[in-house]
Write a structure and sequence with these properties.
alpha+beta, 9 helices, about 50% helix, elongated
């Protein structure tokens, strides 16, 4: 009769490789976590956790849209609903914010499709209670070629450009660190 070791000579080799891979992954995880916590990667979370740095400053540094979200949240409650273009993250924005969806239909394409012209589109947006348009050109520049522009026909993209350049969109805030703009929608 053969022993289990004799029947499976490759088993020890396989177990040795699995152990080596497990140890390598564990070391990578420990190294990454240590580097993140002690601040080898910015922003430094350990300083916030220890109370040595303000959480708001930490978020302002780590999230390019955080200052803009704080600005909107400081508006009166009935006038702070926003529509995000080029931004899919809604965390820290006021409730009711309409965000973009990079992987389905990006904003403002649904509004372009159901309106006859820019003024009609802006009137519809105002009727929904939206008072501000946030244009995050920093994010839009990263994803426009792959996820934004291909979703538009040439005519729809021309309408988008007309919309962005509409005199009814009045700049009321821009982040000096990033190309992020907030426009107030003026009535007709």
């Amino acid at each position: 009769p053969q022993t289990a070791e004799a029947r499976a000579p490759g088993r020890k080799w396989f177990e040795g490789w699995c152990s080596a891979i497990t140890i390598a992954v564990l070391l990578y995880c420990v190294t990454f976590t240590t580097a993140f916590v002690v601040g080898l990667k910015r922003p430094y979370p350990l300083a916030v956790a220890l109370g040595m740095r303000d959480r708001t400053e930490f978020l302002d540094e780590g999230l390019n849209y955080h200052r803009t979200a704080r600005w909107l949240a400081a508006r009166p409650e009935d006038a702070r609903r926003a529509w995000l273009i080029g931004e899919h993250r809604t965390m820290y924005f006021p409730a009711g914010t309409i965000s973009s969806d990079w992987f389905d239909t990006p904003q403002p394409l649904p509004w372009i499709k159901r309106s006859s012209d820019t003024d009609d589109m802006l009137d519809q947006i105002l009727a929904e209670g939206v008072r501000y348009v946030v244009l995050n050109q920093d994010e839009l520049a990263r994803y426009a070629a792959a996820y934004f522009a291909p979703r538009f026909t040439d005519t729809e993209f021309a309408r988008f450009e007309q919309f962005i350049n509409s005199p009814r969109l009045q700049t009321v805030y821009n982040d000096e660190r990033f190309p992020i703009y907030v426009f107030r929608i003026a009535p007709r």
